[in-house]
Every structure is written in structure tokens, then in C-alpha cells.
Amino acid sequence: MSHSRGPLSQLRRGHEELVLGLLRKHGPLSRGELGKHCGLSRTTLYDILADLVAEDAVVTASPQDTPRGRGRPAETLTLNPDAGQAIGIDFARRGLHVAAVNLAHEIVGAASEPHAADLPWEERVDLAERLVGTLTGGGLRLGALRAIGVGVVGPVSGPDAEAVPGESGQEAAGGPGQDGLEAEDGGEPVPHRVQLLLRERFGVPVLLDNNTRLAALGESIWGAAAGGRDVLYLRLSHGVGGGLVVGGSLHRGAYGLSGEFGHITVDRDGARCDCGGTGCLETVASIRAVLDAYRAEGGRADDVPELVKAVKAGEARALGLLDGVGVAIGGVLAAVCNAIGPSVIVIGGELAETGEALFDPIERALSAHVMPVSLHRVSLRRATLGEVAGALGGIALVLHESPLLARYPAGQDLAPGLYQQEGSP
Amino acid sequence: MSHSRGPLSQLRRGHEELVLGLLRKHGPLSRGELGKHCGLSRTTLYDILADLVAEDAVVTASPQDTPRGRGRPAETLTLNPDAGQAIGIDFARRGLHVAAVNLAHEIVGAASEPHAADLPWEERVDLAERLVGTLTGGGLRLGALRAIGVGVVGPVSGPDAEAVPGESGQEAAGGPGQDGLEAEDGGEPVPHRVQLLLRERFGVPVLLDNNTRLAALGESIWGAAAGGRDVLYLRLSHGVGGGLVVGGSLHRGAYGLSGEFGHITVDRDGARCDCGGTGCLETVASIRAVLDAYRAEGGRADDVPELVKAVKAGEARALGLLDGVGVAIGGVLAAVCNAIGPSVIVIGGELAETGEALFDPIERALSAHVMPVSLHRVSLRRATLGEVAGALGGIALVLHESPLLARYPAGQDLAPGLYQQEGSP
């Protein structure tokens, strides 16, 4: 599948998108009907259709039995429901999530696999290819693949993937050695390398963004905050972060550094944080922090599911711990609410699985610290898309059809040079 | 001056704006040149010009001496530099600020006057009219006045002035009885009454918004953050509040409740706040809070200028106090920075006059609590527009030409009914 289809010129890609869009909108159309709608010359249209059919993006449908005036009925063309158009990949700290949509923008599959936090990037990309393979094994073809939307941990300034440079950028991504995102031996920043690796592997543009911001996007389009114009998304996972939809637009921040709720100070005398700060929310509310604290109090849990079990059994130790964690989280949420005034707060990530044990104290602290006038104007919800939220957000980035992205920089591949080099047919 | 000019129909107003815009852009034009540019019929154009001249918005300029081919040179028309087009009024808690621009959008005057916090609204509006009179006394004519942009304390959902309803809304505006904004005897909310009073007095549409948000707008267009696309503005005055420019747009929040930095908790065991919360930043960093704390420690200062004097004299008590206040402010700013990633922080309000004594600890705490990766990406600045920032923001709201307002609801008068009732000439 790699390199099976060199990128076309932007113009030609635009014509293809026009034809695909018409088929998406109208359903099956004859060549003549397509010609009327698209305004392309007959030669150009037939050329494009031939290619689309050759690569299985479009299939010819048998003419219907309705009799026509004379001659045989015209053959119609329709989108191949098995053709993939966009893939989203979330390179999370300790796991990989992929999802794909077909040309009709239906989600045709999603898959996840955990891995060690120190898995080298080459192997992560291998794993990504394997997981995407499980989707194509399910019938998805990649011939029509337009681009891949990729989420990575840490600050990324935008879909054009200018990773934030500077000595502390990598630390902010989760600490040296912890998530494998630091540049090795002074080489190029990891986001760029990932992008190049994926680009080589799949032969299509790769759009990059922060994976938690993409999860916020996914939840705001298809998930718990669908339709929300002012959304605060918080993810409680190996890291603690989030994303914002502000006034109907996904927010990036001046330097791609927004949504870092996990690094808001909750305890000035607290533990040292990987970001270089002290007493950040992440030092209290990340998976590691919660499990460490639980074990320090004599609890036994190696992972979140085991903690959830203890919670469901009503174990006082687990409930007490989560109460304190929830109060810290609620305090941070209240501060951010007072600053930006969202109408919806969505909480996701593995720790959200602890349910009311965590959400009740969050709501209590939120109520205590948000301006009373805002209290009944913000609704607290649990994320609904699960662990593939980030991969789905990556797909949204590629499709770039959500109004939430209207003001977000349009997806640009990192290396337009490469894009040209591979030439057009 | 009141009712001297009934509102015209929107169409006619649009034609007038077209003509005024052409004169603003090209400078003096003859009737013939105007006709070519504007595309209006000769009758319509001459009608409109006659009215504009009659109301002193446009003046005829003597023909220049350059000889023409034949006949006498054509008379040219030009904007009257003394004609006011927009007025901004900031109804602050204890003072009133007005500013005006002429048709060329030059600021032609500004004036301020302090008053008691409990001054009734009718008298505030009288005062506003008097202050505006001092500007017109300076030569400004109100004939061409298009609208008034008004800032008020407390939550306002937007320039269409839907004041936030609900039992606690007025408290959030600064506490019952403190700023006179609460509805009296269950009457209509104060922002609406102010709007109606001003509308009666000046006979033009009155656009309303939160005054601190307008100050943020003013500073982001003409002040310390001019050109900034991601700006955090904090005002340290009788209340503590702020405003945000997010991704190049003035931010309003889902319910007009954004920028309430003064109600972010800084001390869970702190003093009761007028908003109903406990230990809000405002209980530590408002003018009253700072002066009270200073006096409690034996200091003598009745107002901010006296405190500034003590600071300039290097008094340890004043410096120590402001150090603590600055640390609290810096912590809140760091939290908001981590959440939204601005590139500029602007601090205004009377307390900013204390200078380094306050800014140094703010910067220290900001550095200690903002994510290290963001540290060198945000610049802390002192506001430059002074006390008329809010009035200038009101003018910006009326002109609605700043890109920062491109996505902000266009100015709508509260009462379109009234607008119709008064009829057109």
C-alpha cells in the first residue's frame, strides 16, 4: 500500500474532491449527470473518473431497471463504501489508537493497542501500520486515502506541525525519557520525524496536532459536547491536559500551548512535576499520581481497572482518595470557567471510568469556586468517545469540514518539498 | 441636541455610511466624483448630501485655484472634522469616562469624572450628558452621531445587551448596593434602563457591553496589546476583572461571563467575596482590599495615589503588602496562561500605578507557576490607555471595524421597536 499512489497536483486533487463531493451529496450519478453538476470538461472528468475507478474510490453501479426512452440505461457511478478517505492516529503516551472514515465520511473502523511508554518511534509507526491493516482487513481500501491526521503528546503549534522549539519544549511533553518524544542526539524534533515516517509509509500528507486538543475536537463534534460552541475538555490519563472550543472555534493558543490544565498549580508545596513546575494538577490527578497515592495508603491496584473495581466495591480508601483528587480538579475547572465562561465541561481519559467517586467531588468543588452567577450555566459531562476520541479528532482535522475548524489553520503537510518531489503522474 | 435627529431607515443610514466612507477614504470629492464612486442615483445622492451638509456632518470646501478646462471649478465636499460620529461612555463603579471620535475616526476628546458609588442612574446619565457637552463645547458637533457604545459593570451577554438574568447576576456585578447595578424594586435590569435613558437623551442607538471587556478591546486595538491576537487583560480597580482576545477575536463566553479573573479563588480560607464566593482574587487585589489591608497594618492611605506615594518613598509596609498581592495575581495569571496560552498580558486599573512594587512579584509568581515552556512566550505589559480605555472600547464597538470584532455580534440596539417608533423624517 505504501507509495501506491503519488500525490496529485493540488488542482487535480481539487477536481477529485469536487467529483467525490457530488457523489457524496447526490448518491449514484451517471457520467452525464456528473458532467452537468461539476462543470469540468468531458475529457478532464472522464480522466478523473477513470483514475477514481481504477483505485477503487468509485465503483460503477449496475443501471437500474427503470426503462428509459431509448437505448440502454446509463451506467451510474457511486462512492465505494469500502474506500478509506481519512485515517486518524493518536500516538498517546502508552498506547496507539487508529480510526478511519470512508468517502461518505462514515466511521468504518477503530482499533487500539497499548504499548510501553518507551517504545521507539519506528516501532510505533510499525504498530500504526499494523492497526490500520486490521481496518483494511475489514474491507477498507486505502486507494482513496487523502491524508492522515495525527495526534502526538505535547505542544504542537498547529496542523502544519511546527513543533514548539526550545530546550524545555520536550520536557513539557511529559518529561525526558518518559514519553519518548524528545529529539534523540540533537536530531530533529520528534513530531517532525513521526510525520516523515508516516508520510513515507502511507504516501499521503500527514497533519499533526496535539492529541488532547484533537480529543477535545472529537468530543465537540461527535461526542459529549456535540454542537457546543464553548467547551472545556479535560483528559485525565497518563498526562493531564485538555482542549478548548472558544466561541465556536477550536482554540490553539498563541504558541500552540493552550489547554494545559494539568500544569495549573494546585499545591504550592506539592510534588515536582515533569514540566519543571511544582504542585501541578498532573502531580495529583494523573493515572500514575492517583495509583501511587492509592498504593501509598496501602491500596492494591496496578492499573485503573483495578482501582475502578475497588471503587465499585465501595472501598473507603479509594473513595477518600478520589474525593481529594476531585476537589483539586474541580478547583482548577472553576478557575478556568471564571476565565473563559464555557457552557460545557467534558471530562475524559481512563480516570473518568471511576465515575461518581470522582465526578461528585469535582462538581462539589466546581460549585464552591465558580462564580455563583455561572453555576447553573455550565454543564459537567463525561466524555463519550472513549480512547479513540483523539484519532477521531485527527480525522476531523483532515476532513476540515467542522465549523469548529473554520478559523483553524487549514491542514498543511509539514514538507511541501516532499509533496512536490514525488511528482504527479 | 436630544432628538435633534430621528434615526433614519437602515437603508438610508447605509447610503450615508457609504458616502461618509468614500469621503473618509478619498478626502475632498466633488458631487460628480462622489456619484461615480458610490453608484447611487443622482437624486438619492443629492438628497443625502443635502442632509449631511444640513447637519454639519459634511462641509463644502472652496474650489481650489487650479484652473479647469472651462466653467467654474466644481465645489468639493469633505468630512466636517468637528462632527462626532461615535461616543464611548464607561459607567465605572465610581466614575464616568467619555470619549468621542469624529467622522475621520480620530479621537477628538475624552473626559472623566469620579462620583460616589451610590450615585443614582438618572444622575449618572445627567453627568454623562454634561461630560459629552464638554467635548462638544470643544467644537464637536453631534449631528452626525451614529451610536453610543456603553460599558457597564457586571455581566452583559453582548452588545445587544441581554443582561444576564437570574437572582445572582446582580451580585456578581459587585454586590448589592455597591455599584447600584441591581434592579430596583423588581424593575427591569439596570443595563436596560441605562440603555433606554441614554437612547432618550441622545436619540441614537446605544450598544452595551461589559466595561472591562471594552477596556480589553481598547487596549488590544490602540493600547499596550495593539496588534495582539491572544491577549489577557486584567484590570485592578474597585473590582478586579478582565477580558480576553482569543485567536484574534474578542471573547465573550457562552453567557457573557468570561474574563472574571477577580473571582478565581486564591485562598480557600480567605474573606467572603461580594460574588458569593470565598477568597476570590478580588478580596485580595481590589483597591478596597489593598487599602484595607494597608491600613490594618498601620499604614495611612485614603486612596491609591496616597499608596503610590508610600511606594515611591520606599516604605517597607507598602512594598511588603504589594508583594503579597502581586504573588496572588501572578498565580491566577499563570493558571489562565496555562489554560489559554496568550502572548501578551496587559495589566491596567488604578493599582497598576504602583508600578514595579506590584509588577515584580506578579512576574515572579507568573514565572514560578506558568509552564516553563510558555515562560518566554508571554510578555507582561502595563496598560497604556489609562482610565478611558473602556470608553475607547465602546467606540470600537460602535465603529465595528476592528478585525477583533469580526466574529463578535454586530452592534444591535436593545430596542428595535423604539428604533422604528420614532420614525424617519
Structural class computed from helices and strand pairing of chain A:
alpha/beta
The helical percent of chain A reads 25-40%
Low-pLDDT regions of chain A: 1-8, 158-187, 412-425
Tell the overall outline of chain A. elongated
**Biggest sheet descriptor of chain A:** 5 strands, mixed
- The Cα radius of gyration of chain A reads 24 Å
Question: Total strand count of chain A, please?
Answer: 13
Q: How many domains is the backbone of chain A divided into?
A: 3
Widest sheet, order of strands of chain A: 6-5-4-7-8
- Known CATH architecture of the largest domain in chain A: 2-Layer Sandwich
What is the level 1 CATH name of the largest domain in chain A? Answer: Alpha Beta
Please give the most extensive interface between any two protein chains, plus how many residues each contributes. Answer: A-B, 54 and 54 residues
Q: N- to C-terminal separation of chain A? A: 17 Å
On the 0 to 100 scale, the average pLDDT of chain A is: 83
Oligomer: homodimer
